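Per reviewer request, we include the raw input and output of the structure prediction for the construct analysed in the revised manuscript.
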Amino acid sequence: MAEEHDRPAYRFGTRAIRAASVPAPVHQVPTTTPIYQTATFGSADLAELGDILGDRQPGYAYSRIDNPTAAAMAGAVADLEGAEAGFAVGSGMAAIHAAVASLAGAGDRIVSTQAVYGSTRTLFSRVLRRFGVQTDYVDPIDLDAVEVALVTGAKLLYLETISNPTIVVADLPRLIEMAHRHGARVVVDNTFASPYLCRPIELGADLVVESATKWLGGHSDVIAGAVVGSHELIDGVREMQTDVG
């Protein structure tokens, strides 16, 4: 314990606020990822804070933008999925919204599998529709119908590896190739399959979304989500999610 004369000469109010601010040990690395229950992070000065917020140096400023615990989770999912980068969010639906909204905007059209999670369909048909994004639904097994929908112009193709809950299995390699041939990005919800069984990034998908409630948690005690993909596309996802919260 520090002696009285070792303590900084702060007044009582300052000492009360900072009393529990204990720096992490230098040489003793925790064997499990710490949970950073903080909204904000301190910086050496305003210049450093500006560099962190401006992406000119790595670091953390505000947990809505990023947090070491969330970054560790996103990095783990990205690694398991074979992706360059990842971003963690509060739920699987938040992941789907961030991924799709980072790629499509007013006037764009989405082609989605009709065998899609119910809340995803609600997001597309009610929420995104209000903001000028049209969604057309196709049977992912009918490749001719998918191609017709893509030929007429689509910003992205949205798929589920194994549909929730109808268990329709999409032919991802053919569908991804078809979408790219017609200039559409591909977003895949890989929640039901998990990266143990399928890694859509390795098949050419642009972004993959995961609900942590399933394989990552699985015990009905976790709600979280992640989006993984290239550094460039994840930067767009991060910007979108930071803006909308």
